[in-house]
Design a protein that fits this description.
With 282 residues, the chain is of the alpha+beta class. It has a single domain, classed as hypothetical protein PF0899 fold (2-Layer Sandwich), CATH 3.30.2320.10. It has helices spanning 22-25, 30-33, 92-95, 100-122, 154-165, 177-184; strands at 16-20, 36-39, 48-54, 73-79, 82-91, 144-150, 172-175, 207-208, 211-215, 223-227, 232-248, 253-266, 272-278. It has a 6-stranded mixed sheet. The relative contact order is 0.24.
């Protein structure tokens, strides 16, 4: 009896698969820029275990005295992942048109980034015993509520200071387009037309208080986040693209599939803070 193999069976049984390193094809994804990538896993059930230490205190000891033993807590967090996927079906005639494959590839890439960013920020926490897809940053229990930034940057200064007081360092400020626009409208003083952030003939740089700003429509309304990326750990897989000309054999069509597995969790919630920006009065 003949043995069926990938070389003798139809391509639907072994579709062509292309793998890309995520940072090379979706490098603008928030999970790659605003978290610490700690590893990779495959499947909804396995989790990535990330070790960290809750430091004990050190103190002065007199010369010759016995040094008391410290007791740091060796802890861990687990990172579960979910798979973002898209399947596109189109006729063979459409697929072979000039530039069709490249345009579809770009479309799939944009779709994957958009969904991944939305999940990184807004994904609802799974209901136990489910562990995936993991909660987005705005739905993580324990993150700091920084209140509203209104009329000046003092509220943002306090948020950044609070992260430093918790032992972290703010590495990124994430803003919705609306929140960024509102900040750029804050003037240097009452009655002034000059923006506090320098918007006008010379545009504002994408940083605040020396901290890089990422503007993303994954954040809605007037929402923003200040994060220490070392407090957010993630697991990120490759972007995998597969095509098959046989899966839709009966309709002479081509299937294009793209998948990206990732997940993130917050190790130290006190080093992540949410806030809103109040739009200045017109």
């Amino acid at each position: 009896m003949a043995t069926e193999t990938t070389s003798t069976s139809s391509k639907a049984w072994s579709p062509d698969l292309t793998t890309f390193v995520a940072s090379e094809v979706i490098g603008s994804a928030l999970v790659l820029n605003a978290s610490t990538v700690a590893g990779r896993i495959e499947g909804d059930e396995p989790v990535l275990r990330v070790a960290y230490v809750n430091d004990d205190t050190a103190d002065f000891v007199a010369e010759g005295d016995e040094i008391p033993e410290g007791d740091p807590v060796l802890s861990e967090v687990t990172v579960a992942t979910g798979k973002v996927a898209q399947l596109v079906r189109l006729s063979r005639e459409q697929y072979v048109q000039s530039n069709a494959a490249q345009m579809l590839s770009d479309s799939v890439r944009r779709a994957v980034i958009k969904r991944a960013d939305e999940a990184f920020i807004n994904q609802a926490a799974p209901t136990s015993p489910a562990i995936t897809p993991p909660a987005g940053l705005l739905n993580v229990a324990g993150i700091t509520s920084g209140g509203a930034v209104d009329g000046d940057l003092d509220g943002l200064v306090d948020i950044v200071a609070g992260i430093s007081a918790a032992g972290g360092a703010a590495t990124h400020i994430l803003l919705s387009p609306t929140a960024w626009a509102s900040l750029r409208k804050i003037k240097v003083g009452t009655g002034s037309a000059q923006s506090l952030l320098g918007a006008g003939t010379t545009d504002a740089t994408t940083s605040l208080l020396g901290v890089p700003v990422l503007v993303s429509n994954a954040l809605t309304g007037s929402n923003g986040l200040v994060i220490d990326r070392s407090a957010v750990v993630s697991a990120v897989g490759d972007v995998q693209v597969a095509t098959s000309s046989d899966v839709y054999f009966a309709s002479d069509s081509v299937g294009l599939r793209c998948t990206f597995r990732f997940g993130a969790t917050v190790v130290r919630p006190d080093r992540v803070a949410s806030f809103t920006v109040t739009a200045p009065a017109e």
